[in-house]
Amino acid sequence: MTMIDPRKGAKVKFGGVEMKVVTAKGFDSLTLLSSSGEYFDAPLADLEKEAGGSQKANVVVDPIRQSKIPAYMNAFGPLLGRDRLTKKEVEQAGKALGISISSAYAALARFKQSGSTEDLPPPTRPGGRGKSRILPKAEQIIQECLEKTLLTRRNFTPRTFYRKAKRELEKAGFEVAQSTLRGRVARIPEHKWKKARKGYNEARRTDHPIAGNYPEVHKPLDVIQIDHWKADIEILSDDRLTVIGRVWITLAIDIYSRMVFGLHVAIDAPSTTTLGLAMINGMLRKDAVATKYGIEWNNPIYGPIGRLEADNAGEFTGKSIRATADYFHFRLKWRPLGAPQYGGHIERLNATLAERFKELPGATGSTPTERKAFRPEMTAAFTLEDLVRHVWLLVDEYHNEVHTGIGMTPLEKFKSYYFGPNGQKHRLPPIYVDSLEFRRQWYPLETRSLQRYGIRIDHLDYYSENISLLVKNRKKGERVQIRRNPFDVREIYVLHPGLNEWVTVATRHLGFPVASIFELQQARKEALKRKRKPTPEVLAKIIDEQNRHIEEAKKKTKTAQRDAARRSHHGRIRREGGTTSSSGGNRIEIVNMTGVSSSEAPKNTPTPLIKSSTANGDLASILASISDDDIEDIFE
C-alpha cells in the first residue's frame, strides 16, 4: 500500500525526483531538499497524485511476517515516533523479542523508512528460518506453562516461565529456543495479562472506564469512537418531487481533539460497507471533500489510528473489521452490552448534531409530538447530496466552536499538538494514497470453497486464469478469503494462498449488468417470490426489469423514489472510481464516500408548498390537502 511519510529525513518523489523531507509547512505542504541542495515547497495534494500514479494492482502478503507484528508492536510501540532513543531502550525492546540490539536497530530503521508498522519484523526468508512451525504437542506444553506461571495471581516472573517450559519441553523430547519462549510472552494481550495477574476488576477499570473518567489520551488519532445514527430529517428524491424518508449517518470522533474524524451519509442501513466508507473518509485527507462541495475550511484530520471503539453491532465485531484492523494495525474495543455510557463522546456528538437538525427544513424532531409540530413531509427541502454538504458545513462550525470538555475549539486542540509558536512540534501522520489497494481492505470479507467451476457467491460463478491451478489442485473443503466490491458484483478479489497476493477474478457470466450487492440480493428475493430458481440469467433479467420499472414508477411512489435514490447513490460511488472494478486499469480516482458528482452543484431551491407531480389529482383534491395554517403561512 502506497503511503507518504512526512517525517524529517524521509524520502519522497516530487516532480519525478527523489528528495528528502526537511519539515512540514502546516498540514498542506512539505519542505523538501533535493540532492543538489535546492529547497522545494511540495503541496501534499501533488505528492498524493504522484504517488498514486505508480501503484501496484496486487498487494503481496507475507503471513509469517504479519504474524510477528503484534509481538514487535508490544516491544517497540513506546519507541515509535520518538526522535531520540537511548541504547538501553532499544536493547530492552530487543531483549523482549529475543533479538540482538543490531536487529532491534534494523527494525526501527525499517519503520523509519516506510512509516508502517508492517515493516518492523524482518521479511520472511524463502525456505529458511521462520518457515518451520512448533509441533502442536510442544505448543500445548508452552501454553500450559504460561497458564500455570505468568497467567496466575501468584505473579511469577518470565524467568520462572522460561525455566519451567524448558524443563517440561526437554522431558517430552522437544528443544525450543529461548527467543521463541520470549516471543510467546510478548504476544500475551495486555487485557489477558492484567485480568490473570491483577483480577477482573483491575482489568475492567483500565479497559472500560466509566463516563466522565475516560483515561487521558495523549495524542490525536490514538482513540477513535464510531457509531451510526438515524438522522431526524426527511429528504427528497433527486427530482425534488417526493419525500423518500430518513437517512443514516455514520460518525467517527477523535477523542483527543474532539474533531470529527470521518463520516458517511447514506440511505443504506448500517453495514460493513457504510462503516468502511466512513473510515476511508477519515483516514484520507479531506481535500476531495472540500473541492466536491465548494467548502472553504481547515479540516486537517487524517491518518492511521491506534484504537477503534464501537458498540457490539455486527459490522463492528465481524470478521471483516477484525481482518481490516489486523491489516492497518489498530486495536478494536467494544463497549459492554447494555452500557451506552461507555461511548459517551460519540453519543454527545450525535446529540449535538440532532439539535442542529431541528432547525433544518424536513426535520422530524425526536418525539411523536415534535414530528406533528414540525410536519417534515411538507417542509422537506434537501436531497441526499444537499444534506451531505450541509452536514459537512455543520461539522466545520462544530470544529470552530469552543468545546467545554477541552477548553478550546477541536481544531485548535488538534493543531496545537503538531505545531506551536516555534514551528513543528511533532511529525504529521503518514498519508494514505487513495487506491484500490487501500479501499479493498474495507470491502466485505468472506470465505468460500473452491469448486470445479471456480467460486460461487450469491448464485454467481467466478473464474479466471489467476485461480486455474488452485481449482485444478483443490482439496476437499479448502476455502479461500474473498473481498467483494459492494457496488460492482462483476468481479471479486481472492487472496491466492500460493502466491500470497490478492488477485482479481471476474464472473463467468459475460454481459451481467452492473449491480451492487444490495441490487443483487433484491433480485434474488424477487426471483424466489416469483417461484423461479435464481440463476444468473434470471437475476440479470430481473435487475434490468427493476431498473426500467424504477425509472417508470419513481414519480409515483415513495418506495420507488427511495430505491431510485439508493441506486443513483450506489452508481455515483461506482462511477467516481473508489470502488471501480480493476478491469479499467490501475489508476484509481479519489472518491468522496458520499458519491456526489463534483459537476453537480448542490441545489438550495426550496420545495414548493404544492409539489407538481403526476400523482396530483384534480384541483379539489389539491385544495383539500391544504390546511388553514398553510393558507395563513402563504399570506404571511
TrEMBL record:
Query: Which GO molecular function terms does the record list?
Result: nucleic acid binding
Q: Name one Pfam family in it.
A: Mu-transpos_C
An example GO BP is:
DNA integration
Q: Which organism is it from?
A: Sphingomonas psychrotolerans
Point to the regions of Polar residues compositional bias: 594-616
> Which stretches does the entry tag as region Disordered?
112-132, 549-616
Which intervals hold domain Integrase catalytic?
216-418
Which regions span the lipid bilayer?
none
Basic and acidic residues: compositionally biased ranges? 549-566
Organism placement in taxonomy: Bacteria, Pseudomonadati, Pseudomonadota, Alphaproteobacteria, Sphingomonadales
Q: What is this protein called?
A: Integrase catalytic domain-containing protein
